[in-house]
Amino acid sequence: MQADYLIVGQGIAGSVLAWTLHQRGHKVILLNNPARPSASRASAGIFNPLTGKKLVKTWKADELFPFAQKFYGDMQDALHGTFQHLTDIYRPYRSIEEQNSYLAQTADPSIGKYVTETPDHQKFAPFIENSFGGLQITQAGWINCEQMLQKIMSFFVEKNQYFENEFDYEKVEIQQDSVIYEDIEIKKILFCEGFEARENPFFGWLPFNPVKGQSLIVYIEGYSIDEIVNQGNFVLPIDKEGKCRIGATYSWHDINWEISEDGKNFLEGKVKTFFKAPYRILEQQAGIRPSSKDRRPFVGLHPVYKQLGIFNGLGTKGITLAPYFAQQFAQFLETGEEIDAEVNIERFFSLYFRS
Ligand SMILES: Cc1cc2nc3c(=O)[nH]c(=O)nc-3n(C[C@H](O)[C@H](O)[C@H](O)COP(=O)(O)OP(=O)(O)OC[C@H]3O[C@@H](n4cnc5c(N)ncnc54)[C@H](O)[C@@H]3O)c2cc1C
Question: Ligand 1 centroid to 76 CA: how many Å?
Fold first, then answer.
């Protein structure tokens, strides 16, 4: 079998890259081991241009956000899905000081353009502690990752270009201008294994700084809010029947894929500071975010084997980062046009040659 690219891993990274390359006319084969855990299956899928306690505009938001929204909108139309939810984010103020500080910040038009003038505070009041009011962030929303991944998988299955198996690194045979993997000859193998890339003998040297995350799927009777509510932690309505996601934890130690009692207790403790309605826990999920030491993605080709590439390091913001940088990577693969130096793995080549 022949193809242009073999993509290893079908999380957000592999799915978005596969779709991008396919849309640009390349033949892509996807290889994924569903028995392995995946951050994307635990992801809330939120895209939020203003984040953190200090209300900071996220990196490259003005470029990344419009790009990502169009990308997922087009993708869901083409795949007959309903996975993109454009929904505001309501941030109840913690105090009068926080109210003053956020309002002063939003006077800056580059921040103000992501904020709604007049939120309907009354609507939130039965469920949310918002006695100081709140800020409503626009151009935000969430992607139902489970549905998006399923749609992408079905699309490539139908074309006979999706296979479920563990990738065996020992079977990689590098040729002059191509690479052979089992019975497939391809131009390049592009690795998208998320945090599991630490086991990849070609790219394991990249400086990952994994962040474990957990969330709760809950049922809230009579919950009628469409917006995501966020005060450090979030309540995200998944459907109209009261199913919501409460998240998320961030942990830089005990890096494993297991849910924990500590994670649950932490989330419950945090959420009760702003969320008044009772809820019932249906499920708890955990994942490992493939973050990098400098908090920028890993995009590019191997320092020696140009037939091997990586698209990884999406960290805490896979949903917004993936479409924009998949496009840059595709452009680079086609024309050699430079990848943004902040994401190009060339910035870490000295680590490879030192190892
Ligand atoms: C609790 C939590 C909440 C989050 N919330 C958000 C959010 O709201 N918004 C946001 O943008 N991001 C969020 N993230 C981050 C986001 O989930 C990640 O950025 C993203 O999932 C990374 O995707 P990935 O494809 O790189 O990795 P993964 O999703 O881990 O995918 C890797 C894939 O590779 C496969 N694989 C690995 N090794 C092999 C192998 N050897 N052979 C075959 N297949 C292999 C795995 O099976 C898996 O399918 C969250 C993460 C967590 C954990």
Answer: 20
Burial of 177 (0-12, 13-18, 19+ CB in 10 A): exposed
Q: What are phi and psi of 101, to 5 degrees?
A: -65, -45
Residue 68 placed within a domain:
no
Q: What is the pLDDT of residues 312-340, one digit of tens each?
A: 999 999 999 999 999 999 999 999 999 99
Pocket test for ligand 1, best of 46, 289, 343 (most atoms within 8 A of CB): 289
Expressed as residue numbers, the domain containing 200 is 2-42+146-208+293-354
Residues 116, 215: one domain?
Answer: yes
Which 3 state secondary structure label does DSSP give 290? coil
Ligand 1 cavity residues, CB under 6 Å: 8-14, 31-34, 36, 38-40, 42-46, 166-167, 192-194, 196, 213-215, 247-248, 287, 289-290, 312, 314-320
Taking 70 as the pLDDT cut, the residues of the chain under it are none
- Among residues 29, 34, 321, 75, the alpha carbon closest in space to that of 193 is found at 34
What's the CA gap between 186 and 52, in Å, rounded?
A: 42
Give the distance from CA 310 to its chain's centroid. 16
**202 dihedral zone (left: phi>0; alpha: psi -120 to 50; beta):** alpha
